[in-house]
Amino acid sequence: MKKNMLRETVYAFNNTDIVATYDFDMDVWHPNRTKMALVVCEILPFYTNDNLRILDLGVGTGYLTHKIIETFPNARVVAVDAAELMIEKAKLRLKDHLKQITFQTSTFQELPDKEATLSPLDVVVSSFALHHLYKEEKLILFKYIHSILKPNGWFINCDIFKATDTVLEDRFRYLHRLGIQQRIKRIKHQEKSIDQISSELIEKEKKDGDHPLFLMEDMELLKKAGFRTTECFWKEYREAVYGGIK
């Protein structure tokens, strides 16, 4: 079942139509990603001219990697994604920085076996990608991330999660849909009801293979993986920037 779900998740994002409108759609679904990328760049305790080695898990269209290279222009990045079409889109965004980026096509489940020589890294980042993993898969990945980081290396994840209280979860989801409704009207000049948006999102989450955990669960998994410090750096409703230090 999980292997089938893995293939379906990869297929969902390795799709010409999805890739073509992904950044535009993200502005509608997750406008906080601009703020979240800023938090990542702000919280990393390095000089702007440091020669950092960074791994971006789920590079997508290259949004977060681009923001990081703007902040740390000497950084060298290994950019991983399971969707080849996403990597091609990322190469277009990052066309002025290709000499400092290595692209790797891999699922997160395959990565520990395919890339055993990445260490030592200064930073590992991810954005809106790891919620596709089951809990046990995420723990395996967190352990792998810990193993390839330098001592005092940083892992930062920008992602969605579930609220522990069902009343809050329902409220957060409603506010998310309300925001989408307003942005669809402003950006796409379309009128959609909350119920219509809700149905579309439920179908999208199922198709994409979403498995968000409670934020506390993610933090606990980091501790189990060996991170000496874990912290939530930013949070708004069902979105957070969190991570750990080795």
TrEMBL record:
The keyword Transferase applies. The keyword Repressor does not apply. Residues 54-153 form the Methyltransferase domain. GO terms for molecular function: methyltransferase activity. One of its GO terms (biological process) is methylation. Keywords: Methyltransferase, Transferase. This is Putative methyltransferase. It comes from Candidatus Jettenia caeni.
